[in-house]
Amino acid sequence: MVLENHRENIIRNFINEVVEEMNDNDRTLDASYTRVAAKWIGYELDEENFVDGSGDRGLDFWYQSYSVFDLFQVKTLDSTESSRISGGKFDKAGLLDLKRIKAYLTDEEGIPEHNNKLKLFKERWNHVVSSKRLAKKDSEENTGLITVNLGLIIIGNELTVQAMEEFDAFQRSLASPIKIHENVEIEFNLNLYDISYITDAKWRENNREWRNIDGKKQDWIKLQAERNQFLNNSLSSLFYCPAINLVSAYQDFGYQLFEPNVRCNIKKSKVNSAIRESIKHYSSRKEFRYLNNGVTIICKNYSSPSKNRDSFKVNEPGIVNGLQTVISLSEAYNSLSNEEKEDFEENCYVLVRLLRSNAVRNVDKVVRSTNTQNKMEPRNLLSNNPEQILYEKLFAKKEIGWFYERKQGSWDAFANDPRRWRTLQNKRKADFLSDSNDLRTKARVVDNETIAQTWMSFIGFSDIAVHEKSKLFEREEWYNLVFLHSPIKHGYDYKYNLQKLKQDANNEAPPPELLLISHLARSFARQVTPSKKENFESACKRLNINPNSRTREEVIAELSNDSEYLLGLALSGMSYTFVEYLGFALFRALGTKLYDSGQAILKNGAFATIHKTNSFKKVQEQVKKETFSKDDILCVAWFSFKHVLNEMLSSFWAESFRSTSNKSRFLANKDTRLKIVQGLEDLHRYTCQVQITKLWAAGIEPEKGIYGFIKDKARKGR
Questions:
Q1: Domain containing 156: what range?
Q2: What positions does the domain Abortive phage infection protein C-terminal occupy (predicted)?
């Protein structure tokens, strides 16, 4: 099966995202697994929703919608090896945590909380309970019912036999609601999510081929009309369709069903929760057709039911409105008992509006006008803006040769059938492939969200790039600054006042070469920096410390006195800060002529290598052995960055860095970034007077300094 063949790759991607979460946000491995697992199964949560830690009462993260609470416990292995995760088995420890959660909600109301995040959850819980207690009993509906969905996520393959037996027994014990007050009952549901569930969900989210989950080529679905009744003309049809038809189509094809002009992943929301909740009850299943807006599908063509055909055959369907409906129906259906599933299949219907592709002149208008229930990803809604389409074309030019992914899934859609990608005529998949043997980096692809982060860092606002990523396409002034304006100076020169920088900026979009340079610089910083785990292990080895002889906290306390370990720890969380540092150096060296220097910089040293290959193997070796060319702008900037950090680590700043509880925030804060830029200014003045006796500084000439070095090498590349 295609799904089975890809599962290991998806698990590796999952692990890579966990490692990135751990490094970028200074989290433990368990906390990183918890956050990435939550995201992969559809929860886009604020940090306050993660309770994991001391005194969590078994609760790792939670989500609330109306009177429905989704509460989760996550169990992980102390490993980042895909083979271990694929075969990992878990005992009953996770089940015991779920029982602790249940007891906390039903039996332990009076016990005080010492975990601040748990206090926040309990405040929400108590508010809902109080509201239910005050509500009057409704003769037709139990207004005092609170639904609690208990979820056990295992980052592995299965529970042990004994644990599974106890899980089933606990599930049976929850069959009836539990009364906690006269007017209030809790209905508990129990669900198990293993690594297969997570990878299946990701497969569906990422699928961009007309190939079903069994690996078979298929570009059509079947939809029945209730009692074979429908309104039909030459371009469209309207009918009530069994919801199970749409569920089956989604299970088979995943996101390939959703209109390719706007790729989006709609996470859990109140709309989704309301849909799932209504499907749980017999009466509301029958009424669903009247309570839901329905689904709009644009297709290449379709065949209507006839004497010889009991259903519509819909070729290359694209659901332009109804993503949240279809996914929520699928999730709700999977949680039903067998008896309830039968009732769902017989009685739950959805209104379907079926349109041939030539029924409308502009599909985008249909997408925008019909998507009003759930907020779509801003980057997808803006994907057809003129500047986004233009950047796609500019990045694709031979001189750059990168695929600019202006919307989710667009590279997969293009690679699958370039002829259908109307904005890149005469371009082929091969135009964006390098000679690299590494399949992970073979395609030269960068998405607009990444570009927004790295360019915002480049012009001086790496703190926004790191901590406000989700708002870069949501806040109009930030989006316009990134894609429609060119600052004349770096953010440092405006004391990091973004509004003042924008007021002085030219009303011109930045050149694609510089946007790509910002991305390549960040990727370079990540690739040449050891991970936190590698830094920890190498430091222990270098200092002859046995990490198993003491607690990890004691080992880290000793390592924190080692400047090399501290430097590695800082660098692992400063990839965006390095981009800001490089941006400042380039602005200082070239001024506004920077905007004409992109091609020259891309032809220089390490930039040239990774621009052409998207591979870092050669560059990593050169950085490790310091064998890069003395004219290499990127490598010299990197070593000067390390030099500045080393100087800071010999000052009082080091003690603040050691003692801070949130190193990610500390490294991105304004004071730290000011010190780094000031350190570069000092280093430039020093190199204008003295030749530094370091290999990396061999190309820096006295009197010209670092900025003169950059200016000369950028000119040389023209």
A1: 2-198
A2: 258-477
With the C-alpha atoms ordered 74, 80, 82, 86, is the resulting torsion angle positive or negative?
Answer: negative
pTM of the model: 0.62
Residue 613 lies in a domain: yes
Q: Please tell me the distance from the alpha carbon of residue 607 to that of residue 632, in angstroms, as a whole number.
A: 8
Classify burial at 510, counting beta carbons within 10 Å of its beta carbon; exposed 0-12, middle 13-18, buried 19 or more: buried
Tell me: the pLDDT tens digits for 263-297? 455 556 555 667 777 787 788 889 899 888 899 99
Q: Are residues 172 and 257 in the same domain?
A: no
Q: What is the DSSP string of 284-302?
A: HHHHHHHHS--EEEEESEE
Q: What span, in angstroms and rounded, lies between the C-alpha atoms of 343 and 511?
A: 58
576 and 658, same structural domain?
Answer: yes
The dihedral region occupied by 55, where left means phi > 0, alpha psi between -120 and 50, and beta the remainder, is left
State whether 140 and 175 are in the same domain: yes
Domain end among 145, 164, 198: 198
Residue at a domain's end among 326, 348, 376 = 376
Distances (CA, A) of 330 to 99, 213, 320: 27, 15, 17
Burial class of 123 by CB neighbour count within 10 A (0 to 12, 13 to 18, 19+): exposed
- Give the CA angle between residues 95, 98, 103 to the nearest 5°: 130
Q: What percent helix, strand, coil does the chain show, rounded to 5?
A: 55, 15, 30
3 state SS for 395-427? HHCCCCCCEEECCCCHHHHHHHCHHHCCCCCCC
- The DSSP output letter for 260 is T
Q: Which residues of the chain carry a pLDDT beneath 70? A: 1-6, 108-112, 135-143, 259-273, 360-376, 436-441, 717-718
| Alpha-carbon dihedral sign for residues 680, 681, 682, 687 | positive
Other CB atoms within 10 Å distance of the CB of residue 580? 30
In this structure, the strands spanning 295-299 and 349-356 are parallel
